[in-house]
Design brief:
With 734 residues, this protein is mostly beta strands. The protein has four helices and 46 strands.
Length: 734
């Protein structure tokens, strides 16, 4: 239910309320609330669909709009309670507004548009919805993807903070790499919205938020139940079920459960035998008019085989084919079990208090072989990385809104803690998955205590956000092979400043500046005795958001980011690899256009100049850092009947080593889909790599030695990208 009340005083009417989806009862975040006849957006709804607005004069009339819903005009006069329910409708870019506040970013609106136009088929595509973000899989589908963003090779998440419903996805001090972000436990159809921010400018986001962050939010209530089956090439199958458990009185409570099972052998000559099972349940309960409780649990289990990387010389000599393998015994298994609970109390229409607690049990076991017979000419160099982890945490945030004259002030105060404990984090030398010897073995204890304060002010056409964040980290490593390693701790302050100026309803200018950081691996921290282990990132954005017509939405940003130390733990080798200070400068372009009621186009284009500082010219390239990327497509979206899409992703050639003597090859890959949609069912065909392009998905300059070779060779090793792939789906809604 949406309550909207009036409080008269000093010639103003204070209006508070909430906006919901009329069908699912899902709160609508970032819905715009305007005074009718006013050309500016006066306010917008928060994460819970709530808003607070003051209007001069009696009998105010509100215009409420949200992308993908019918606009409504609401009269407040003479009503003590007002239900603002928006009916789902076709996506229309005229409802995408130039927001006057940074509390709801333009990126979340863009992601909502993209998610509506192009429903994702897997968790990989979820990540790709963030503009400028690229991923690469190189371990049979079961390992977390390698992430690229804003000129960063983020490995598996070192410089991108990822979360779902406020719960961290990244695993700090992971057995395979710092910030390891495995999103495969997310069932893509449960995701309602994606919030994304580039750069280190956001007070509530701390560790690992240097290049940016990606936050997924799942549905509180399903719009409908669904059963879906899919089948595709390479012996690929998927089954999905999402069941709404409480169809009545959804304003009071809602609950649903979702399950997903996947299997594929993949295109490699050695079958991947990849299988994954996901289970997710969520319950939402209004304890009272002022109290809301949300709880979710999930379980994820996956197992796979992998063919590994292909050395260029092995392919060119005919030793193996593109889909062959030097060591087909790679692969692994992983599990994650989550519990997430949040409680929100509204002290008043202006003040709310959010609390969240989460727990994850995580198991990881990975077999890899990158160098073959470089170190061990008899048994080979296969390694096994494994860990068992307990992760728990608590977050709290107090939000207060108030008016001083016509200026709206929003204050956010937050605090929390995250604690990670791993047992027997291991790096071992193995042969054909058989144990030979330990390289590293120990127990990790890492905690992150944080607090922040942020003040927002909307004054006329100006909007200011100033924040300060404090993080204190404590690192402990009990090395079972060498116990002489004392615990370490360090703290860091991160100031943030964002300024926006809305010239008119079609033009907004903004500047962002801030400091962020990524922590280093606990094993590095204790080995370095706490020195240079919280490298800071300093960044600035200068941008403009444009809406030159009702069918257009554009964003252009020039940015700069300097990192004190790209200093990470290379888990594959159990060594520390500092690479000094780096600087990145870039230009981002985001464009959306609506041709007709049902036909849309999007374009993302990113240019970056990444360089290492203090190195000689020509020796200052940052390996694998993207220099030019682009994604885009055409989308035909109708609520009933035929739908379709054509999309592409492009990455330019980029240096694979410091002097650019080895080049990671660029690629252009196109995908397509066609669906026939009715209220009760949907039939669809999805195509990946429509033109059957030969492309390299993951690439590395690797030193390796094949069996019988007299000396090692450093060259490009790669994982081939998927060839032409097609799958069919049948979904039934009820």
């Amino acid at each position: 239910m949406v309550l909207c009340c009036r409080m008269a005083g000093f010639g103003q009417t204070a209006i508070v309320g909430q906006v919901l989806d009329a069908i699912s009862r899902q709160p609508l975040e970032s819905a715009s609330i305007s005074l009718y006849g006013d050309q500016t957006v006066n306010t917008f709804t928060d994460h819970y669909g709530r808003f607070y607005l003051k209007a001069r004069g009696a009998n105010p009339v509100l215009l409420v709009s949200y992308v993908g819903y019918l606009q409504r005009t609401i009269s407040v006069s003479g009503k003590d309670a007002l239900r603002i329910e928006l009916q789902p409708a076709a996506v229309n870019l005229k409802d995408a507004v130039v927001l006057q506040s940074g509390g709801a970013t333009r990126f979340s609106t863009l992601s909502k548009i993209d998610l509506d136009l192009q429903p994702v088929k897997n968790t990989q595509e979820l990540m790709r919805l963030a503009p400028g973000l690229f991923i690469a899989q190189h371990a049979g589908g079961g390992k977390a993807e390698q992430i690229f963003l804003r000129g960063f090779d983020c490995d598996h998440g070192t410089d991108v903070q990822v979360s779902v419903d406020g719960m961290p996805v990244n695993m700090v001090s992971h057995a395979h790499g710092q910030g390891y972000a495995d999103t495969h436990f997310i069932i893509p159809e449960t995701v309602n919205s994606i919030d994304f921010g580039a750069g280190p400018y956001y007070t509530e986001h701390g560790n690992l938020n240097t290049a940016g962050y990606v936050s997924f939010s799942t549905y509180n209530s399903l719009p409908q139940s669904r059963v879906q089956v899919e089948a595709g090439l390479f012996n690929s199958y998927r089954v999905l079920a999402m069941v709404d458990l409480l169809k009545k009185n959804k304003d009071k409570q809602s609950a649903y459960i979702a399950a997903e099972a996947n299997y594929t052998d993949g295109p490699s000559l050695s079958p991947q035998h990849f299988n994954r099972f996901n289970l997710f349940g969520k319950y939402n309960f209004a304890l009272s008019e002022h109290d809301q409780l949300t709880a979710s649990v999930s379980a994820f289990k996956s197992k796979w085989d992998a063919s590994g990387q292909v050395p260029t010389r092995a392919l060119e000599s005919g030793l193996i084919s593109r889909w062959g393998s030097i060591d087909p015994s790679e692969g692994g298994n992983t599990e994650r079990y989550n519990a997430n609970i949040s409680f929100v109390h509204r002290w008043s229409s202006q003040t709310s208090w959010e609390n969240q607690a989460f727990y994850s049990r995580y198991l990881f076991n990975l077999y890899s072989d990158f160098s073959f017979f470089l170190s061990d000419s008899v048994n080979g160099d296969e390694i096994n990385q494994r860990e068992r982890r307990n992760m728990l945490g608590y977050n709290s945030r107090l939000t207060h809104k108030s008016y001083v004259g016509d200026a709206l002030f929003t204050s956010n105060f937050g605090a929390g803690i995250r604690y990670d404990a791993t047992d027997n984090t291991e790096l071992a030398h193995v042969v054909k998955r058989r144990f030979l010897s330990d390289v590293k073995l120990g127990d990790i204890r890492e905690s992150n205590l944080f607090a922040y304060a942020e003040q927002q002010a909307s004054v006329g056409n100006w909007h200011f956000i100033a924040g300060l964040r404090f993080d204190a980290l404590h690192f402990s490593y009990i090395d079972q092979l060498d116990p002489q390693m004392p615990a370490q701790g360090k703290a860091i302050f991160s100031p943030k400043l964002n300024i926006q100026y809305t010239v008119n309803p079609r033009v907004q200018l903004y500047v962002k500046a801030g400091k962020g950081f990524h922590s280093n691996d606990t094993r590095v921290v204790v080995a370095q005795q706490g020195q240079e282990i919280l490298p800071a990132a300093y960044g600035a954005d200068l941008g403009i958001t444009l809406k030159p017509g009702s069918r257009w939405l554009l964003n252009i940003a020039a940015w700069y980011l300097q990192l004190e130390q790209e200093f990470v733990y290379r888990g594959d080798d159990a060594v520390v690899e500092p690479s000094g200070k780096t600087r990145r400068e870039g230009l981002d372009l985001i464009a959306r256009y609506q041709f007709t009621t049902n036909l849309f186009a999007n374009l993302n284009f990113n240019l970056t100049r990444p360089r290492a500082l203090g190195e000689q010219k020509g020796q200052d390239y940052i390996p694998l850092a993207p220099v030019a990327t682009s994604t885009g497509g055409l989308f035909y979206k109708a609520r009933k009947g035929f739908n379709g899409s054509f999309s592409y992703r492009y990455m330019k050639n980029r240096p694979a080593n410091e002097d650019n003597s080895i080049v990671a090859k660029g690629y252009f890959v196109a995908d397509g889909a066609i669906n026939y949609t009715q209220p009760k069912y949907e039939i669809g065909l999805a195509f990946e790599n429509l033109f059957n392009t030969k492309w390299n998905e993951a690439q590395f300059a690797t030193e390796s030695r094949l069996k019988g070779e007299p000396a090692p060779v450093t060259e490009l090793n790669f994982t081939p990208g998927i060839p032409f792939f097609a799958r069919v789906k049948l979904a039934v809604n009820f």
